[in-house]
């Protein structure tokens, strides 16, 4: 063993951009849109695995599907921890969040209960509520189409709150939605190495005054994170023991019922349920909303793509009903549109940071223990070899003879992360994205708005640079495709009826 370790220690580190004494690469890593720089450095070094360093920090960026599969998937037993973060755990008070827990018992307990209660095969639990929330959102689009971004955000927030806690949101200014938005904002910088650098200075936790921004974070974000975990859980518990004793079924209600049945009164069981519901709510709404905004923007920019998707919907679904999840397999063009949107603008451009649990060796390079490992989804999804002319929005690249072409790499397999830490909510996210896109396209036309002089207003196409990539607010003209749209939506809402409560 000693010989082997010695051998590994003699191996070179993977290549990377020029490093300076003491500070390594820290001055050259951009504060924003770093995925494009990582991809360029990879090309310049002729390697899909690059190494960057800073004081107390070693960072590995994986720019190819091969390296991600070899390391994060096949060696996930050692690549599945998360870096310990003073920023997230102590300043922000998010040490309970499953997505930042290190690999180990606490993470496994939470991940297990998530899978048990939201198993992909269990769509009967969430499908009725997805339909009900999407239909409600469609009606809002008829009434105030200019507020489409707000309606989509409320639909996703309402759906996750309903599934996790059985809580119904207010149609405006909902305190829980505002809370989750603020906590999500605080997490936006999480995959940028500058955040890790602050984490890598061990004394920082004792001197928060030294960093004014850290002090502000500690003061503002800590109570918000605690409220996010406690307040909706308390509301759900109150509902369960409410006046009529009838609670809306939810993740929390089912888990608590189970505890009562099993007479398991252990405090830690409550904590696991509370933490898991909290991460479901926080991780579930923002990223799905971001994906839908991207699709709407792409469809507005490509009227010909939109027209083809609508033609397919008219042929298969018709105009007498709204789409349902069971239509998905019959609508390959629409599936290709969604794949192309995930490819062109992946929601997390760089996956959440993984942490290597012990030293490793890959293709003749040494990967130091505790390295932070980032999968650069943007580089993989903009790779010319898999996706020629990657800058173009072209759903046809996924089709052959009118069917989905399985020979083209599926962007969905890259967009939701890797190995044991891959997104556990991907099936809910994908079905919500699909149903929302199909329903909006079947009922509405999305166009660029015009100003008072009749001039088309072009979107800036600018994106917010953070963990979840989302277009900056943009305007769009959404109008019903035919005169029967409102009645169709009202009919769907009437038949959902209990959907809100199943
Ligand atoms: C379009 C929407 C979504 C995208 C693109 C997305 C993507 C991701 C990615 C890339 C990761 C990190 C994976 C890694 O570390 O390799 C992740 C983690 C996670 N996601 Fe999602 N996600 C989405 C929606 C959701 C939804 C709807 C939920 C919950 C219902 C959810 C729950 C989680 C959780 C709990 C984690 C942390 C997993 C862990 O650390 O073990 N996500 N997601």
From TrEMBL:
The lineage of its organism: Eukaryota, Fungi, Dikarya, Basidiomycota, Agaricomycotina. PANTHER family: P450, PUTATIVE (EUROFUNG)-RELATED, P450, PUTATIVE (EUROFUNG)-RELATED-RELATED. This is Cytochrome P450. Keywords: Heme, Iron, Metal-binding, Monooxygenase, Oxidoreductase, Signal. It holds the Pfam family p450. Pathway: Secondary metabolite biosynthesis. It comes from Laccaria amethystina LaAM-08-1. Belongs to the cytochrome P450 family. GO terms for molecular function: heme binding; iron ion binding; monooxygenase activity; oxidoreductase activity, acting on paired donors, with incorporation or reduction of molecular oxygen. Its cofactor is heme. InterPro entries: Cyt_P450, Cyt_P450_CS, Cyt_P450_E_grp-I, Cyt_P450_sf, Cytochrome_P450_fung. It comes from the Eukaryota. Heme binds at residue 423.
């Amino acid at each position: 063993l000693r010989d082997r370790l010695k051998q590994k220690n003699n191996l070179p580190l993977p290549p990377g951009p020029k490093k300076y004494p003491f500070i390594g690469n820290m001055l050259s890593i951009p504060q924003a849109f770093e995925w494009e720089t990582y991809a360029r450095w990879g090309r310049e070094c002729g390697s899909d695995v690059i190494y960057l360093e800073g004081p107390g920090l070693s960072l590995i960026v994986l720019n190819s599907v091969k390296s991600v599969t070899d390391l994060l998937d096949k060696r996930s037993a050692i690549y599945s921890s998360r870096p310990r973060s003073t920023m997230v755990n102590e300043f922000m008070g998010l040490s309970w969040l499953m997505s930042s827990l290190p690999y180990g018992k606490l993470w496994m307990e939470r991940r297990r209960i998530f899978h048990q209660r939201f198993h992909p095969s269990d769509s009967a639990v969430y499908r009725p509520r997805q339909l009900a929330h999407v239909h409600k959102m469609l009606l809002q689009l008829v009434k105030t189409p200019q507020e489409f971004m707000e309606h989509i955000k409320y639909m996703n927030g309402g759906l996750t709150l309903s599934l996790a806690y059985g809580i119904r949101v207010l149609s405006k200014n909902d305190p829980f939605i505002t809370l989750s938005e603020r906590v999500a904002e605080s997490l936006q910088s999480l995959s940028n190495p500058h955040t890790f650098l602050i984490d890598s200075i061990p004394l920082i936790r004792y001197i928060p005054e030294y960093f004014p921004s850290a002090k502000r974070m500690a003061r503002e974000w800590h109570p918000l994170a605690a409220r996010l975990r406690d307040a909706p859980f308390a509301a759900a518990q109150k509902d369960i023991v409410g006046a009529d004793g009838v609670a809306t079924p939810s993740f929390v209600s089912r888990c608590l019922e189970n505890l009562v049945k099993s007479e398991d009164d252990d405090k830690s069981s409550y904590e696991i349920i509370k933490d898991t519901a909290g991460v479901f709510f926080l991780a579930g709404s923002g990223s799905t909303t971001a994906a839908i905004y991207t699709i709407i923007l792409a469809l507005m920019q490509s009227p010909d793509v939109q027209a083809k998707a609508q033609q397919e919907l008219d042929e298969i679904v018709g105009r007498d009903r709204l789409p349902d999840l069971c239509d998905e397999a019959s609508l390959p063009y629409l599936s290709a549109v969604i794949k192309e949107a995930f490819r062109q603008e992946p929601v997390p451009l760089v996956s959440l940071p993984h942490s290597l649990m012990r030293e490793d060796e890959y293709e003749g390079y040494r990967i130091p223990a505790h390295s932070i490992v980032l999968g650069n989804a943007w580089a993989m999804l903009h790779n010319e070899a898999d996706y020629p002319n990657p800058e173009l929005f072209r759903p046809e690249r996924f089709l052959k003879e009118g069917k989905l072409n399985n020979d083209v790499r599926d962007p969905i397999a890259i967009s939701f992360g890797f190995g044991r830490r891959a997104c556990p909510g991907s099936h809910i996210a994908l079905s919500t994205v699909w149903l929302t896109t199909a329903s909006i396209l079947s009922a509405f036309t999305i166009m660029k708005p015009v100003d008072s002089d009749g001039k088309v207003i072009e979107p800036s196409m600018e994106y917010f640079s953070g963990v979840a990539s989302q277009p900056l607010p943009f305007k769009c003209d959404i109008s019903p495709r035919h005169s029967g749209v409102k009645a169709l939506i009202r009919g769907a809402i009437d038949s959902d009826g209990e959907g809100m409560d199943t």
